[in-house]
TrEMBL record:
PANTHER family with a match to the protein in the record: DIGUANYLATE CYCLASE DGCM-RELATED (PTHR45138:SF9), REGULATORY COMPONENTS OF SENSORY TRANSDUCTION SYSTEM (PTHR45138)
PROSITE patterns, alphabetized: GGDEF (PS50887)
GO biological process: cell adhesion involved in single-species biofilm formation; negative regulation of bacterial-type flagellum-dependent cell motility
Catalytic activity: 2 GTP = 3',3'-c-di-GMP + 2 diphosphate
Protein name, per record: diguanylate cyclase
Transmembrane feature ranges: 6-25, 37-55, 61-82, 89-109, 115-135, 150-174, 186-210
Keywords for the protein's UniProt record, in alphabetical order: Membrane, Transmembrane, Transmembrane helix
Species: Comamonas denitrificans
CC terms in the record's Gene Ontology section: plasma membrane
Limits of the GGDEF domain: 252-387
Enzyme Commission designation: 2.7.7.65
Length: 387
């Protein structure tokens, strides 16, 4: 079964143009996620296929030499888009050198159709494989959930690799029996039909990748304190309710620590508010180094932090609190060549491992930890007090 090649080329051109325009609108003023490079690649693809469509009506230099160079440019732009998305260097010099080499090869092989098909099939397949390699390397280096967008992108690029290699193999080992790139046969039909599908699938995949990143950023903004990166108060309250419910189901203890920086106003007054912000970030780093993966650290408000310790009784929480207090005291904050010493007071409360325990409410646990914290401050600060 064959299809009209000019019609398939026209489908690719229209799809590429429409998708590129949609991506440029979607990208807006952002310049950090690679969408503009992907949209540029689609524009280059549309122009390349338009030149191929005009083969025989425009000079060979434009139709084949420039057309194939633009096809390679499109895949190079996709490669740049994925690298930009992952914050990698773009390597413009290598890209331009490849395009110049392709243009020269197409000029030298202007009377050898089969050789052109083999070479371009191998080059385009390799370029698509390089994009897949970048995706694989980033997936291996990041501990994250499987991205559905990345999966679509891999499928689209995989189609390109497979099609280009099959097209090159057909030209190398079998006769294509065509005199022009616009002539229809099974290989031509499969090539351009798959190119049409791959353009859609891979573009949707890249858009979904960008959307997933935006969703993750919005989730972080909704749950993280923007200054310290710790959980914000809203996220802390949700975690507290979740951990209390789990502790009740499993009959396990839950501890809560309230940590307050002693005389924090003096830090701001003496060193400035920027130094105070740095101290807040510094203490989060010190505390995190001594917490388990299951523990929750968040900024409760101002210079006050809250820690949730699942499966931890009052005795264990008191031991950890003392370790944290000593760690903070032993790690002054470095700021513009100065060392800012500071200490913390910590209030410790815990619910028992019995369902009937009246402390198994968020209000009761918070109140108990707050009262312990105030007692630590009243007793002279830089100490731990138990509820």
């Amino acid at each position: 079964m064959t299809a009209d090649v000019p019609t398939l080329l026209l489908m690719i051109i229209v799809t590429s143009l429409v998708t590129s325009g949609a991506l440029l609108v979607l990208n807006g003023n952002q310049r950090n996620d690679g969408l503009q490079y992907w949209a540029g690649g689609l524009l280059l693809s549309a122009l390349a296929h338009a030149l191929l469509l005009l083969y025989g009506r425009i000079p060979y230099l434009l139709a084949i030499v420039l057309g194939n160079a633009l096809l390679s440019s499109a895949l190079a732009s996709f490669w740049l888009a994925v690298r930009r998305f992952h914050g990698l260097a773009l390597h413009w010099a290598r890209t331009l050198a490849l395009l110049a080499a392709i243009a020269l090869l197409m000029w030298l092989l202007q009377h050898q159709f089969a050789s052109r098909v083999v070479i371009m099939g191998l080059i385009l397949g390799l370029q698509a494989a390089l994009v897949l390699w970048v995706l694989r390397q980033r997936a291996l280096g990041a501990e994250q959930q499987r991205s559905r967008g990345a999966l679509l992108l891999v499928c689209g690029l995989g189609l390109i690799v497979l099609t280009m290699l099959l097209r090159a193999g057909a030209a190398l080992f079998f006769s294509l029996n065509i005199a022009s790139i616009l002539q229809s046969n099974l290989v031509q039909t499969l090539t351009f039909m798959v190119s049409f599908l791959a353009t859609l699938v891979s573009s949707f995949g890249f858009v979904f990748m960008a959307k997933e990143r935006a969703d993750q950023a919005n989730l972080r903004l909704a749950s993280q304190d923007p200054l310290t990166g710790a959980a914000n108060r809203r996220a802390l309250m949700q975690a507290l309710e979740t951990e209390l419910a789990r502790a009740s189901r499993q009959h396990t203890p839950l501890a809560l620590l309230m940590v307050d920086i002693d005389h924090f106003k003096r830090v701001n007054d003496h060193y400035g508010h920027l130094a105070g912000d740095h101290v807040l970030r510094h203490i989060v780093g010190v505390l995190r180094q001594r917490l388990r993966a299951s523990d929750v650290l968040g900024r409760y408000g101002g210079e006050e932090f809250m820690l949730l310790l699942p499966d931890t009784d009052l005795h264990g929480a008191a031991q950890l609190a003392e370790q944290l207090r000593q760690a903070v005291q032993a790690a002054p904050c470095e700021w513009q060549g100065q060392r800012i010493p500071f200490t913390v007071s910590i209030g410790v409360a815990a619910s028992a491992d019995t369902p009937a325990d009246p402390s198994r409410t968020s209000e009761a646990l918070l109140q108990a930890a707050d009262q312990a914290l105030y007692r630590a401050k009243d007793d002279g600060r830089n100490r731990v007090a138990l509820a």
